[in-house]
Amino acid sequence: VKVKIPFGNKCLDAIFSVPEEKPAYGVILTHGAGGDMNFPHLLSLAAYLASHGILCLRFTCKGLNVAYRTKAFKTVVEYLKLSDDYKLSGVFLAGRSMGSRAAASLIRQLSQDDDDDFIQGLICLSYPLHRPKLQSKLRDEDLLFIRCPVLFVSGSADEMCEKQLLEGVASKMKAPKKIHWIDKANHGMAVKGRTTDDVMEEINAQVYSWLRENVELEHK
Protein backbone atom coordinates (compact mmCIF):
# COMPACT_ATOMS: atom_id res chain seq x y z
CA VAL A 1 0.00 0.00 0.00
CA LYS A 2 1.65 3.23 -1.18
CA VAL A 3 1.22 6.32 1.00
CA LYS A 4 2.54 9.87 1.11
CA ILE A 5 3.39 11.13 4.59
CA PRO A 6 3.29 14.93 5.06
CA PHE A 7 6.68 16.24 6.17
CA GLY A 8 7.08 20.01 6.41
CA ASN A 9 6.11 21.46 3.03
CA LYS A 10 6.64 18.17 1.19
CA CYS A 11 5.77 14.49 1.51
CA LEU A 12 7.76 11.36 2.22
CA ASP A 13 7.09 8.40 -0.07
CA ALA A 14 6.33 5.27 1.91
CA ILE A 15 5.01 1.76 1.35
CA PHE A 16 3.20 -0.58 3.74
CA SER A 17 3.85 -4.32 3.37
CA VAL A 18 0.76 -5.71 5.07
CA PRO A 19 0.37 -9.24 6.50
CA GLU A 20 -2.75 -11.26 5.66
CA GLU A 21 -3.85 -11.35 9.28
CA LYS A 22 -4.19 -8.26 11.44
CA PRO A 23 -0.70 -7.49 12.81
CA ALA A 24 0.01 -6.59 16.44
CA TYR A 25 3.51 -5.27 15.74
CA GLY A 26 5.27 -3.36 12.99
CA VAL A 27 8.73 -2.42 11.77
CA ILE A 28 9.54 0.99 10.30
CA LEU A 29 12.42 0.62 7.89
CA THR A 30 14.59 3.09 5.97
CA HIS A 31 17.63 3.10 3.69
CA GLY A 32 21.23 4.28 3.90
CA ALA A 33 22.91 7.38 2.48
CA GLY A 34 22.47 6.15 -1.09
CA GLY A 35 19.41 4.58 -2.67
CA ASP A 36 15.84 4.70 -1.41
CA MET A 37 13.16 2.48 0.14
CA ASN A 38 13.32 0.15 -2.90
CA PHE A 39 16.88 -0.91 -2.10
CA PRO A 40 16.84 -4.72 -2.66
CA HIS A 41 17.70 -5.58 0.97
CA LEU A 42 14.78 -3.47 2.24
CA LEU A 43 12.35 -4.98 -0.26
CA SER A 44 13.42 -8.47 0.75
CA LEU A 45 13.12 -7.82 4.50
CA ALA A 46 9.74 -6.06 4.17
CA ALA A 47 8.27 -8.95 2.16
CA TYR A 48 9.67 -11.51 4.60
CA LEU A 49 8.27 -9.75 7.67
CA ALA A 50 4.84 -9.27 6.12
CA SER A 51 4.69 -12.94 5.14
CA HIS A 52 5.44 -13.78 8.80
CA GLY A 53 2.72 -11.57 10.27
CA ILE A 54 4.66 -8.35 10.98
CA LEU A 55 3.63 -5.09 9.33
CA CYS A 56 6.50 -3.26 7.61
CA LEU A 57 6.41 0.42 6.69
CA ARG A 58 9.41 1.50 4.67
CA PHE A 59 10.07 5.07 3.58
CA THR A 60 12.42 7.21 1.50
CA CYS A 61 14.23 10.26 2.85
CA LYS A 62 17.08 11.46 0.66
CA GLY A 63 18.74 13.95 3.03
CA LEU A 64 22.36 13.27 3.96
CA ASN A 65 22.07 15.14 7.26
CA VAL A 66 21.45 12.78 10.21
CA ALA A 67 19.38 15.38 12.13
CA TYR A 68 17.14 15.84 9.07
CA ARG A 69 16.78 12.07 8.60
CA THR A 70 15.95 11.69 12.30
CA LYS A 71 13.22 14.32 12.00
CA ALA A 72 11.76 12.48 9.01
CA PHE A 73 11.84 9.19 10.95
CA LYS A 74 9.96 10.84 13.83
CA THR A 75 7.27 12.05 11.41
CA VAL A 76 6.82 8.49 10.09
CA VAL A 77 6.58 7.05 13.62
CA GLU A 78 3.90 9.60 14.55
CA TYR A 79 2.03 8.89 11.32
CA LEU A 80 1.88 5.16 12.07
CA LYS A 81 1.02 5.72 15.72
CA LEU A 82 -2.02 7.79 14.75
CA SER A 83 -3.07 5.53 11.87
CA ASP A 84 -6.67 4.32 11.98
CA ASP A 85 -5.90 1.51 9.52
CA TYR A 86 -3.28 -0.22 11.67
CA LYS A 87 -3.73 -0.28 15.43
CA LEU A 88 -0.39 -1.63 16.59
CA SER A 89 0.77 -2.55 20.09
CA GLY A 90 4.26 -1.36 19.25
CA VAL A 91 6.90 -0.83 16.58
CA PHE A 92 10.57 -1.54 16.06
CA LEU A 93 12.69 1.07 14.28
CA ALA A 94 15.05 -0.31 11.66
CA GLY A 95 17.49 1.13 9.19
CA ARG A 96 20.36 0.27 6.93
CA SER A 97 23.64 2.12 7.46
CA MET A 98 22.81 5.85 7.85
CA GLY A 99 19.16 4.91 8.31
CA SER A 100 20.11 2.96 11.45
CA ARG A 101 21.94 6.02 12.79
CA ALA A 102 18.77 8.07 12.33
CA ALA A 103 16.72 5.36 14.07
CA ALA A 104 19.15 5.26 17.02
CA SER A 105 19.17 9.05 17.27
CA LEU A 106 15.37 9.16 17.34
CA ILE A 107 15.09 6.48 20.03
CA ARG A 108 17.53 8.42 22.21
CA GLN A 109 15.50 11.61 21.69
CA LEU A 110 12.20 9.97 22.50
CA SER A 111 13.58 8.26 25.61
CA GLN A 112 14.58 11.69 26.93
CA ASP A 113 11.02 12.91 26.28
CA ASP A 114 9.86 10.03 28.48
CA ASP A 115 7.65 8.78 25.67
CA ASP A 116 5.34 5.80 26.11
CA ASP A 117 6.45 2.30 25.16
CA PHE A 118 5.21 2.38 21.54
CA ILE A 119 8.81 1.91 20.35
CA GLN A 120 9.89 -1.59 21.36
CA GLY A 121 13.41 -1.84 19.95
CA LEU A 122 16.02 -0.99 17.33
CA ILE A 123 17.37 -2.98 14.37
CA CYS A 124 20.69 -1.79 12.91
CA LEU A 125 21.66 -3.27 9.54
CA SER A 126 25.30 -2.38 8.72
CA TYR A 127 25.50 0.28 11.44
CA PRO A 128 28.20 2.76 10.27
CA LEU A 129 30.17 2.94 13.53
CA HIS A 130 33.00 4.93 11.92
CA ARG A 131 34.11 6.28 8.56
CA PRO A 132 36.32 3.93 6.52
CA LYS A 133 39.87 3.97 7.95
CA LEU A 134 38.86 6.46 10.65
CA GLN A 135 38.33 4.16 13.62
CA SER A 136 39.31 6.83 16.17
CA LYS A 137 35.97 8.69 15.84
CA LEU A 138 33.14 6.39 16.82
CA ARG A 139 29.47 7.19 16.20
CA ASP A 140 28.40 5.51 19.41
CA GLU A 141 26.91 8.33 21.49
CA ASP A 142 23.25 7.49 20.75
CA LEU A 143 23.78 3.76 21.25
CA LEU A 144 25.11 4.26 24.78
CA PHE A 145 21.91 6.06 25.87
CA ILE A 146 19.40 3.58 24.46
CA ARG A 147 17.58 1.26 26.90
CA CYS A 148 15.31 -0.75 24.59
CA PRO A 149 16.51 -4.01 22.94
CA VAL A 150 18.93 -3.57 20.02
CA LEU A 151 19.87 -5.98 17.23
CA PHE A 152 22.97 -5.37 15.12
CA VAL A 153 23.39 -7.27 11.87
CA SER A 154 26.83 -6.47 10.48
CA GLY A 155 29.39 -7.92 8.12
CA SER A 156 32.56 -9.22 9.74
CA ALA A 157 34.50 -7.41 6.97
CA ASP A 158 32.50 -4.16 7.12
CA GLU A 159 34.91 -1.30 6.44
CA MET A 160 32.66 1.07 8.44
CA CYS A 161 32.16 -1.15 11.47
CA GLU A 162 35.25 -2.97 12.70
CA LYS A 163 34.23 -6.11 14.59
CA GLN A 164 36.20 -5.47 17.80
CA LEU A 165 35.04 -1.86 17.95
CA LEU A 166 31.35 -2.75 17.72
CA GLU A 167 31.78 -5.48 20.32
CA GLY A 168 33.49 -2.92 22.58
CA VAL A 169 30.62 -0.45 22.18
CA ALA A 170 28.05 -3.21 22.77
CA SER A 171 29.77 -4.18 26.04
CA LYS A 172 29.26 -0.60 27.30
CA MET A 173 25.61 -0.37 26.24
CA LYS A 174 22.90 -0.43 28.92
CA ALA A 175 20.35 -1.92 26.51
CA PRO A 176 19.80 -5.66 25.96
CA LYS A 177 21.69 -6.22 22.71
CA LYS A 178 22.61 -8.89 20.22
CA ILE A 179 25.12 -8.81 17.37
CA HIS A 180 24.76 -11.18 14.43
CA TRP A 181 27.86 -11.21 12.21
CA ILE A 182 27.48 -12.07 8.54
CA ASP A 183 30.74 -13.88 7.86
CA LYS A 184 33.06 -12.07 5.41
CA ALA A 185 30.34 -9.54 4.41
CA ASN A 186 31.33 -5.95 3.60
CA HIS A 187 29.29 -2.80 4.38
CA GLY A 188 26.95 -3.55 1.48
CA MET A 189 26.45 -7.12 2.81
CA ALA A 190 28.17 -8.63 -0.23
CA VAL A 191 30.02 -11.90 0.40
CA LYS A 192 32.28 -13.51 -2.19
CA GLY A 193 30.85 -16.87 -3.23
CA ARG A 194 27.33 -16.17 -1.89
CA THR A 195 24.34 -14.77 -3.75
CA THR A 196 22.52 -11.67 -2.51
CA ASP A 197 19.40 -13.78 -1.96
CA ASP A 198 21.32 -16.26 0.15
CA VAL A 199 22.75 -13.49 2.36
CA MET A 200 19.33 -11.86 2.64
CA GLU A 201 17.76 -15.14 3.76
CA GLU A 202 20.23 -15.23 6.64
CA ILE A 203 19.58 -11.58 7.56
CA ASN A 204 15.78 -11.87 7.30
CA ALA A 205 15.66 -15.02 9.42
CA GLN A 206 17.85 -13.40 12.09
CA VAL A 207 15.73 -10.23 12.23
CA TYR A 208 12.50 -12.20 12.45
CA SER A 209 13.68 -14.58 15.18
CA TRP A 210 14.98 -11.62 17.24
CA LEU A 211 11.66 -9.80 16.81
CA ARG A 212 9.77 -12.87 17.97
CA GLU A 213 11.95 -13.23 21.04
CA ASN A 214 11.43 -9.59 21.98
CA VAL A 215 7.69 -9.51 21.32
CA GLU A 216 7.30 -12.67 23.43
CA LEU A 217 9.34 -11.11 26.22
CA GLU A 218 6.97 -8.13 26.23
CA HIS A 219 4.04 -10.46 26.73
CA LYS A 220 5.45 -12.62 29.52
UniProtKB/TrEMBL annotation:
Residues 27-209 form the KANL3/Tex30 alpha/beta hydrolase-like domain. It comes from Scytalopus superciliaris. PANTHER family: TESTIS DEVELOPMENT PROTEIN PRTD, TESTIS-EXPRESSED PROTEIN 30. The lineage of its organism: Eukaryota, Metazoa, Chordata, Craniata, Vertebrata. This is TEX30 protein. Coiled coil: none annotated. InterPro entries: AB_hydrolase_fold, KANL3/Tex30_Abhydrolase, NSL3/Tex30.
